[in-house]
Amino acid sequence: xxxxxxxxxxxxxxxxxxxxxxxxxxxxxxxxxxxxxxxxxxxxxxxxxxxxxxxxxxxxxxxxxxxxxxxxxxxxxxxxxxxxxxxxxxxxxxxxxxxxxxxxxxxxxxxxxxxxxxxxxxxxxxxxxxxxxxxxxxxxxxxxxxxxxxxxxxxxxxxxxxxxxx
Length: 166
Ligand code: UDP
Ligand code: MG
Description:
The protein is an alpha/beta fold. It has one domain (about 1-165): P-loop containing nucleotide triphosphate hydrolases (Rossmann fold, 3-Layer(aba) Sandwich), CATH 3.40.50.300. The protein contains seven helices and five strands. It has helices at about 10-25, 30-40, 45-50, 60-75, 95-100, 115-125, 135-155; strands at about 1-5, 25-30, 85, 110-115, 160-165. It has a five-stranded parallel β-sheet, with helices on both faces. Helix 2 (about 30-40) packs across helix 3 (about 45-50). It is globular, with a radius of gyration of 15 Å. The two termini are about 25 Å apart. The structure holds uridine-5'-diphosphate and magnesium ion. Uridine-5'-diphosphate binds near residues 58 and 63.
């Protein structure tokens, strides 16, 4: 398992697609999986939609449950041979720990470190449904609060590789 972390708009999705293609890994975007739940129109999807549209985080057991099911599907289909790349997860230290208990420990973690001004500029240009000014600010705020302890957790675990956006 490889994790790709970074603030909203840091390029996780773009670079994860390239990395997964380059190395033949299965690619799971947590944000995409959650948006698929929303699109499926279930009650759970409705709850998730309310959170995403406000820039809030989906509760840990829900995200980890959705990921666990997706990882199982990949393994069952025989597509995990070159590893699995998870993009945009975990968002909190609690999620990182829960994931290790429920799924397993990552071998490599990549963190795209980019300043908030750069993220704001990129998100403004992207224009997804949750890329409005107030929601962007909430996502940046949560990222600033939660991500340092996640990165530190993996740094101490000796699995962190890093890069600074330019
Ligand atoms: N999200 C979440 N937990 C995750 C990943 C995503 O709650 O582990 C939600 C959260 O509301 C976030 C949204 O999904 O703002 C979009 O996440 P994604 O990674 O697709 O986009 P980003 O904001 O990083 O560009
Ligand atoms: Mg993304």
